[in-house]
Amino acid sequence: MPKKLTIVLGPTAVGKTDYAVCLAESLGTEIINCDSRQIFRELSIGVARPDDETLRRVKHHFIACRSVQEPYTAGMFELDAMALLEELFRKYDTVVMTGGSGFYIDALCKGLDDFPPADPQLREELTRRVREEGVESLRMDLRRLDPESYAAIDIANWQRVVRALEVTIATGRKFSDFKTSTAKKRPFEIEKIGLQRERSELYGRIDRRVDIMMKQGLLEEAERLLPLRNLTALNTVGYKELFAHFDGDCTLDEAVEAIKRNTRHYAKRQMSYWGRDDSIVWKKM
Fold first, then answer.
1. Fewest Cβ atoms closer than 10 Å to its Cβ: which of 67, 126, 131, 277?
2. In angstroms, rounded to a whole number, what is the distance separating the alpha carbons of residues 29 and 278?
3. Are 193 and 7 within 8 A, CB to CB?
4. Could you write out the DSSP letters of every residue in 36-96?
């Protein structure tokens, strides 16, 4: 029998963790986390990390295993997860993976293009420009240097803009020249289960979860992380809104409402991202 990776995906707050844990228990297997923020040990409440009881029920991998001060990318996840799967498939016929980071899921399923390594000094310079000039200045540079990437990537995501410019400037070649879009062949079957709920129900779950996070101490967690706010991992819904509150830009109630609103927007972007993937079997919750 061929080995199989079963991926449980879907928008934030849809119920992926509970579904994946029940599935893994029924299969007698382990879970690989593919949430790009739950990887970081400093982030807990704001990223809805599974609680201790859940982690005891099924062994999870890539949970709280890195520091936010250590750079971690989808390319690194691809290599780490492939190595882990080789080990797990010696023990199990099926392994469960779950999370809402579409780019991490694609990295493992299809592989990433062979981009050159990051240039930390150039990236820091471009990031400084974002802080001082705003991202629009960098967007215009990208439009001039690599119009193909400007048209293709999510230019609302300043980190994507910085990365595309970094590669283009460092190599003298367009970022788009490195994209082959050729999927790598994996030595195992891949099954994707997408969870979905009615929009009103999902948005209600999001709002309730944010309220629970605040009761659990999200404000205090964000305050502890304030000295690290400029790190990429902290440019995350749930933290950046509270940082704005600490800056005096909004009241706490306004920050909480912004977290709910931005989380709903994030869920909508997640569904749009996966809407292009015909291999997903969608399940109504």
1. 131
2. 26
3. yes
4. TTTTBTT--GGGTPPPHHHHHHS-EESSS-B-TTS---HHHHHHHHHHHHHHHTTT-SEEE
| Dihedral-angle region of residue 66 (phi above 0 means left; psi in -120 to 50 means alpha; beta otherwise) | beta
C-alpha 103/C-alpha 115 separation (Å) is 15
* Alpha carbons 236 and 48: distance in angstroms, whole number: 12
Torsion, Cα of 162, 167, 171, 173 (10° steps):
-100
Q: Per-residue pLDDT averaged across 111-135, rounded?
A: 84
Q: Are 111 and 183 in contact (CB under 8 A)?
A: yes
Of the two residues 245 and 123, the one the predictor is more confident about is 245
Measured on CA atoms in the order 169, 172, 176, 181, is the torsion positive or negative? negative
Partners of 31 in beta bridges: 60, 96
**Angle at which helices 74-88 and 102-110 cross, to 10°:** 60
Q: Report how far residue 54's alpha carbon sits from residue 18's, in angstroms, rounded to the nearest whole number.
A: 8
Where do runs of H (alpha helix) occur along 69-198?
74-88, 102-110, 120-133, 135-145, 147-152, 158-171
Q: Which two tokens stand for residue 61?
A: 């991998």
The pLDDT tens digits for 38-92 are 999 999 999 999 999 999 999 999 999 999 998 888 888 999 999 999 999 999 9
Q: Are 3 and 189 in contact (CB under 8 A)?
A: yes
Tokens of 20: 């994946």
Q: List the structure tokens of 189.
A: 């079957």
Buried b (16+ CB within 10 A) or exposed e, 76-115: ebbebbbeebeebbeebebbbbbbbbbebbbbbbbbbeeb
User: How is residue 214 written in tokens?
Assistant: 């605040």
